[in-house]
Amino acid sequence: MPTTGQSRGVSARSKRADAVRNQQTLLEAAAEVFVSSGVDAPIREIAARAGVGMGTIYRHFPTRADLVIAVYRHQVEACAEAGPNLLASADSPLAALRQWVDLFVDFLVTKHGLAGALQSDSGGFDALHAYFLDRLVPVCTQLLDAAADADEINPGTHAYELMRGIGNLCIGHDSDPRYDPRRLIDLLLQGLRRPQSP
């Protein structure tokens, strides 16, 4: 039978676990809103999506920059963790790469607004960019290598090169509704494919 001190310890741990879960829910809701409405979306829209009060958001993230940075880190980690999971579950390494690129594009839409949200902190933005490269270039490399090993794509494509190309294709998406970067990214990925033998 647990003592009172042990009960308090278990209770504190479960409260911490609840707080972490609540924060994850909030970050996922904020990411969805940022992807659909931009980084300047009203906080009340994020609160409604997360099913919390606006005070809860401000308690976790006192400024919009704090929230954007947290969403950025959350999405980097989600992209990093998705790579190996997709390789294990997708029909093929190329299918895993395509699914991962979709997640990466969602992330880039959020990332685009980050520079504006951090105008006064270029050092902070540089540190986040380095973190982004450190976490995601190895994951993209693993996906490319697996697709090349399976003879689905030509070898020799560098992850940084591909990620930068995708990032460049995403520029301008939010300012021109006629422009669909995903269509061009799909063409780019088709260009990686190894030609099928006749």
From TrEMBL:
Per the database entry, where does the chain bind DNA? 42-61
Looking up PROSITE patterns in the UniProt record yields: HTH_TETR_2
UniProt keywords, alphabetically: DNA-binding, Transcription, Transcription regulation
User: Per the database record, which ranges form the HTH tetR-type domain?
Assistant: 20-79
Pfam families per the UniProt record, alphabetical? TetR_C_43, TetR_N
Q: What is the superkingdom listed in this entry's lineage? A: Bacteria
Its recorded name reads TetR/AcrR family transcriptional regulator
Organism of this sequence: Streptomyces durocortorensis
